Structures are given as structure tokens and as C-alpha cells.
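Issue 218. Parser rejects a valid record. Input:
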Amino acid sequence: MNISLGTPPFPIVAIADTGSDLIWTQCKPCTNCYKQNAAVFSPNSSSTYKTVPCQSSACDSLQSEYEASYGDQSHTKGDIAVETLTLGSTAGPRRHVAFPKMVIGCGHDNAGTFSPKGSGIVGLGGGSVSLVTQLGPHIGGKFSYCLVPSSAAAEATSTLSFGQSAVVSGNGVATTPLIPDPSQPTFYVVQLEAVSVGSKKIPFHGSTVGETSSGNIIVDSGTTLTLVPTDFFTQLSSAVESQVTGSNKTTDPQGYLSLCYVSGPKLKVPSITAHFKGADVALTVENVFIKVSDTVACLAFYGNDDVSIYGNVAQQNFRVGYDLQKHTLSFKPTDCTQKFF
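Output the parser choked on:
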């Protein structure tokens, strides 16, 4: 997502991640930074940048220096600071909204799987230092995004909305409860009851997340694949394989995904529906299969017994709306390449 930090505003492109909280960018001086295409943010060039002393309340969860790691073993280390953060506005291309004294991380040691296209991460989780929580009363606990499919033209951009413009409503909306977990406030947890492959309905018995009584899967914009328990994955993969027609099986060139086919117009995939509590979400082929090369498409699910995650491939071409006051998560099938406000 595009944000700006500092005064004067310095443009940043960062990963929008509902699975983490901290807003951070690579900062000068870089002791160990990954390569990024854009210029690196320099705190000395901003008149509003201030490091946070350790007795401040922002230190409660992070201390004045921070270290954060992610599920793929990427990490960032640096200083906690307060800074002005500026977002674009739907009021027009030249309209921007500035939010002063936002808690951010200024990363001097950052490594892992980060793309050179990005400069950091914008945490959209439910914790105290996330962008969503810090915007607080300005957005009424509402945000949504619409992720363009990986097959979209290069110029197509996903949209991220806050406040009243983020409300997902109208025909075709499926809404499921968000299940709060005080022990892990970062994560957006829901209950997945089953997945249907054609007429075969496979019950989902993922382990509960944190201290929730019924939540069993995390919805995460920052994870690509959908991670499910290995026994469920075996059943899902077998059901899909038994119903795919028109293409030959092949192997993942990277050797990571297990059910792959030669991609092309002849590949026919069964209808697949995710049955969340009170919400049936019908998935398209682009939600279920991911192209790993020009000629190979693989099932975008992965067996993992540590944690279950509903990843971003499954969320493409849906408006996904979070209402943290009503504790709901909504899905609406949408052509995300089209502007809708």
C-alpha cells in the first residue's frame, strides 16, 4: 500500500498485512537492510520524527527498540518512533489526510523474503500499534480491501478503504463473526466449518486459535497460501484431484506444492465453497489454484499442523470487510480491477 511518512511527506510502498501490527519502514542508517528499489527513509530529513523514550506507553508492547519476526522467518529490528503518517483520500487524487504522532518502527536491520518493490510493512492487525487501532475513532473500526487477482494486468491496483467507505454491503454479501481472542489480539479469527468440493463436503476440524472457544482459522492478507491441517489437506487434495478434468497432472518446479496441473483453458476445476459460520463463500479457480510458472498451476492450499490461515489467494476478487465494532467479517464477490467508489 502507498503511504507517506514524515514532514515533508516521504512516499513509502509497504505490505498491507492483517496478520501483524507494527507499521515499519527501512530507515537510514541501514546496518543490514534488504535491497529496495525506492529511496530509503531518512529520519533526519523529517521535522516531525521523534524516537520514543522507554517510559512512554507505546513501549508497553514493543520497548523503545523493537524486534519483530514473521511466519516466513523474515525479521525487522530498529527504533520505535512517532511520526506523521499521510494517506490518500477518496475525496480526490490531490486530497490527502495526515495523522500526526503515529507509532512506527524505523528498521535498521531487516532481512528475509521481502521484495525490493516494498520498503516495509503496514500492520493492519488488532493490536495496539496497528494502523487500524491507531486510526481508532477516525475510521469507526471499519476497513476493507479488494485484492486484484494475480492474472490481472500489471496496471491494475488493489484498493484498501477505511471508515464509512469500507462498509461491505448489498447483494451477495456473506458475513461471519470475528471471534475476539484477548491472548492474541493481533489476529482476525473466524470459524471455518467445512469446505465443499463439488458435492463432497469435508468437515474442518482445525485446532482452536489461542484462547478462543470456536475460532479455528486466521484470515491473513499477508500470507499467500491457505494453510490447513495435514489430514484435512489430504482429504481436500484427494477430492479436488478426483474431480479435476481436461488437464494432465505435473509437478511444481519449485517442489513446494503437491497437486499441480498443466495450466490452460482446458483445465476444469470443481466448484469449491468455504463454509464459514453463517457464511458460504464460493471460490473461483483463481482462489483455489495459483500459477507457479507460465505452464503450471497448483492447488493454493498447504498442509500445516501449527496454525490454520486463510490466505490472500483465496481472498482475490472479493471485497473483504472488517467491522471491529460489530465483530464481523464480510465477503462480497467483486471484480477488484474496477473502481467502486
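Fixed in the parser; the record now loads. The chain has four helices and 26 strands.
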